[in-house]
């Protein structure tokens, strides 16, 4: 079930990120990438007033789609449009504190999570160490793939 996230609402509840930080959106996206990878989920996070506007190719990944409101619209309007266009209630978890967004999402029977609750989840994730280069792939699996693709691992046998 993918998440639809009001980005600045969430940043406002994070202890590790400040809305005053010029890189606040990128820092949140970093947290979201780790969270979504660990939980094998996807999300769309929408921010107000970013440049150049629209979907961000630089920040978006397979699991985290980043959209900046532009052209006279707001993040709230984009989120409301997406909620109204989604008919399968199993398809969305909404993260927002905006009263209208919460009301519309609940009327459509979507699960709503408060930004404070989701921020707490994001910030309690284990922080990867250098030893955790990729927590989903073991060293044996890497070796097997390298062997299958004919890549020399550089180790002497």
Question: How many strand segments?
Answer: 6
- Report the biggest beta sheet as strand number plus sense, adding barrel if it closes: 6 strands, mixed
Measured between the Cα atoms of the first and last residue, the distance is 45 Å
Strand content: 5-15%
Helix content: 25-40%
Kindly report the CATH topology: Rossmann fold
Q: What is the C-level CATH assignment?
A: Alpha Beta
> What spatial order of strands do you see in the largest sheet?
3-4-2-1-5-6
* Count of domain modules: 1
Give the number of helices. Answer: 6
Low-confidence stretches: none
Structural class: alpha/beta
Can you name the CATH architecture?
3-Layer(aba) Sandwich
Task: Return Rg in Å.
Answer: 18 Å
Mean pLDDT: 84
Order of helices and strands: EHHEEEHEHEHH
Features:
6 helices, 6-stranded mixed beta sheet, 6 strands, 14% strand, Rossmann fold, single chain
Provide an overview of this structure.
With 157 residues, this protein is α/β, with parallel strands linked by helices. It has one domain: Rossmann fold, CATH 3.40.50. It contains six helices and six strands, in the order βααβββαβαβαα. Strands 3-4-2-1-5-6 form a six-stranded mixed β-sheet. Strand 3 (54-55) and strand 4 form a beta hairpin. The longest helix is centred in the N-terminal third of the chain and has 16 residues, at 24-39. The termini are far apart. The mean pLDDT is 84.
